[in-house]
Amino acid sequence: MNSLRRPSSARGYLLAFVATAFWSTTAVIIGHLTTRFHLPPLVLAFWRDFVVAGTVFGAIALLARPLLHLERRHVPFFVLYGLVLAVFNAMWTVSVALNGAAVATVLVHTAPAFTALIGWRRWGERLDAPKIVAIILSIAGVALTSGAYDRAAWQVNPAGIVVGLATGGAFAAYSLLGKDSSRRGVHPWTATLYSFAIGATFLLLVQRPDTLLWLSRPLAAGPGGGREAALGWGLLVLLAVVPTVGGYGLYTVSLTHLPASTASLIVTLEPVMTAALAFVFLGERLTVPQTLGGGLILTGVVLLRLSDRVANGARGSPLSGFHGSRSRSPGSGTGRRAAPGEAPPPSRT
User: Fold this and answer.
1) What global pTM score does this model have?
2) Number of domains in the chain
3) What does each C-alpha distance from 161 to 95, 146, 152 come to in angstroms?
4) Structural domain that includes position 136
């Protein structure tokens, strides 16, 4: 846990897939918390980030204490990183309220397009025909999987569309900051800890005192209420510890191996995996559009993977940038190895 492995696109794809699988379980848990307990979205977002930060802190303190250290020069960057995470969590809840789940899902998954454009301009990440086609396929696939192909789903106000697109932009910013954190040499689990801790701090500032302990309200109903409160808090902790730590943590690790645009594209598989889980565990029927949508997204990801392999083969070795960076002296550049699909980082001299 206290050392980074060499960049590997195969490992990056696997980590991003597993992260997405974790994320795909969040809808069921969040749905239970908001329907059964009527938990306000911003309260849920705060406690989720707070418990994640506490869990990662405890794990690092027990297993790899050096990772608790964050250099002072990185503090302003992580204030921004945490703020972006808090804004994304808040805007997502607002987008769902304004647009409905189907349209909000499509709009947030415009993030790969934002990520690819900014990554191309900022770091020279590859933006070729296969990646553009993969982005188009992923957005179309998400629309089919989420049910947003129904014209009635788009009977929303312009403000809702703006917020939804801004949510996609916020997730793109989160992905790009994660990649920037990797380029700065910050360990991904250190980055996860401080981004969530700072994000929870920002979300605490917008809480109302009378709703902060919402899940403890059943205690006032008597002995039976204690069981209900325990169930609510238990589900919240489960949401934070399993899908959130697993999802965000592994996604951040995947950014040390993949361009941000590639990792962001893989995340568009989340609604497909959610539908599959609902089919397996809840007996919900997979519709034809959901199946077609899943096929489109998978096709885009496979196309992207094949394109990466061809590009790596053309360069001779996917780790050529790694061996080059190891020979640098500490003052000759960033010392950060280029991930597959990226241009080497510019020299700081």
Assistant:
1) 0.76
2) 1
3) 8, 16, 14
4) 11-317
